[in-house]
Fold this sequence. Notes:
This protein is of the alpha/beta class. The chain is built from 11 helices and 13 strands. Helix 2 links the parallel strand 2 (27-31) and strand 3. The chain is globular. Belongs to the NAD(P)-dependent epimerase/dehydratase family. It catalyses: UDP-alpha-D-glucose = UDP-alpha-D-galactose.
Amino acid sequence: MSKILVTGGTGYIGSHTVVELHNAGYTPVIVDNLSNSNIKILDQIEKIIGVKPEFHQFDLCDVAKTTAFIEANPDITGIIHFAASKAVGESVVDPLKYYHNNFFSLINLLNSYREKPINFVFSSSCTVYGEPDVLPVTESAPVKKSTSPYGNTKQIAEEILEETANAYGNYNIVALRYFNPVGAHETALIGELPNGVPQNLLPFITQTAIGKREKLTVFGSDYDTPDGSCIRDYIHVVDLAKAHVAAIKLLEKGNPNGKFDVFNIGTGNGYSVLEAIKAFEKASGKPLNYEFGPRREGDVIQVWGDVTKSTKELGWKAQLGIDEMMSSAWAWEQYINENPLPLD
């Protein structure tokens, strides 16, 4: 079966996608610089699928190394590109890090395939919609000025990809605009493993529940939402991983929509931060110590997606609900508490 390059494949979404690619009969090959992931995740993946995936450690911002790798692996037929800096708050504080890492890696990959046919799945984000005028937001909604440098890199990357696909005949590209990935694999062997202080809600919830953190801060209590907290479309990471496999399959048979296309990847349901906390407390049986703090710069008030296009044209639909998201995240937190995965 086809060999698929997974950039950032030891990361949170990447590792789950490697598993689902293997389950679907593909041969995943990982490139990761381990700047925000753990080499031991390779062993965890092996425990799940029975084989250790091929792994190469280097930075895709390095032109020479990227070009040499692509030339040495002519049998790669598809790329799923996750490798990027991804924390909204950090991007506001350090925008140059985000513009450098997120653009150089993408452009180097595309340049390496100037003369070769390639199916390319890009890890995009619902942040491209900014603060939507209409909910649920569809793929035809206007792309608005981003509220963060991170979101801006996704917007510009999509423009780069669309213009590249239109200019050259060898690229077939899908950008998956996904919402808020949460949860962990059912085995509790892989999951979200943030370095330092978590940037996302759910690992902060689980770390608070298990005692690693004293309390959880809910950023903002006075938003124009039913309970005053932000609303997001949370999606189980395994469902998200399967969407990438579906995208590769679509590109392999030929996307009738052309050389570039976008899809929303979410559940179509919005949950507030407080609803997410309550769902976790129910799933885990653990009361959470949380307090309200000031609004966080760059946060969108509420967003959830219309996933009609993904269902009809990508042939994909989320199967796991909020209960599975919370219970699997809690199982993963308990696993890494008992089996620490220290960074090398």
